[in-house]
Amino acid sequence: MSDKPPVILIGAQRSGTTALASVLDVAFDKVGGIFTVNGKLPYILHRWVTAADLTARHLRVDEMIWALRRKPPFGTHSERWLATTENVLRAAAEAVSAGEVTDPVRLRRDVLAGAYAGATRFGEKYNEYLLELDSLAESLPDAQWVLLIRNPEAVARSTLRWSGDRPWRPPDREAALAKWVAWHEPWLAHPRTANQRLCTVVEYSQLCAGGGLSRLGSRLDLDLAPYQELLTESSAPIGAALSAPVRDMWTRLLGQAGL
Q1: What are 122-140's pLDDT values in tens digits?
Q2: Are 37 and 74 a contacting pair, CB within 8 Å?
Q3: Where are the alpha helices (DSSP H) in 166-233?
Q4: Residue 235 near residue 154, CB atoms below 8 Å
Q5: Which residue, among 162, 148, 212, 121, has the nearest Cα to 10 in the 3D structure?
Q6: φ and ψ of 123, to 5 deg
Q7: How far is residue 50's CA from residue 66's CA, in Å, rounded to a whole number?
Q8: Cβ proximity of 110 and 102 under 8 Å
Q9: Given pLDDT bands bounded at 50, 70 and 90, which one contains residue 86?
Q10: Any bridge partners for residue 174, and if so which?
């Protein structure tokens, strides 16, 4: 791999992360890289690769492989990436059973490196990484974090319209806004996010307007401009006044985005 750091795209649900991830998927592919959309491998490794598992010499890769394929990632190289990742996990389980591995953090890092082997650079998007930044920093210590933010009223409306079996969906606007605040609190509290060399905050409507995508591309050393049409935003939402906690959170995040 090149010396460019991995890119981890995070954000609250319904913030436009999947749309931006689609842009990064094709941009990474153009330079020989891989960007997985909802690959969620670090998320799974944080739960299934523990010191207790290694002490017992029992890495439960059957559960991990099932979780990866239950709702598989999408993107240019998703199927090839899944096949590679499964092989890497099976080899890791064999090494653990032989007592050759004792450090769970080192193993997580090795699995991630193996899953993206052969790519010039790699990246990943999964919303829930926003809730486990400490573990993410352990597993990918040199990663560039990109936080995508979106108007909280727009997020709440989109969340309430979200169809399908989503038992964690909030029941009303107030709950959706409170959840939006709760999801961003870990970002503001984490010491790493103050480092602008490692972390970037971008706002979705600015990306859709054009200029923001070019600036993000410069930050990531990627040409993102040709894929502007993959990003669309509805008209500005008009609703009831935001509560003080929501308004304060939005103001602070906009400040980190330079807006």
Answers
A1: 999 999 999 999 999 999 9
A2: yes
A3: 173-189, 204-209, 211-220
A4: no
A5: 148
A6: -160, 175
A7: 18
A8: no
A9: very high
A10: none
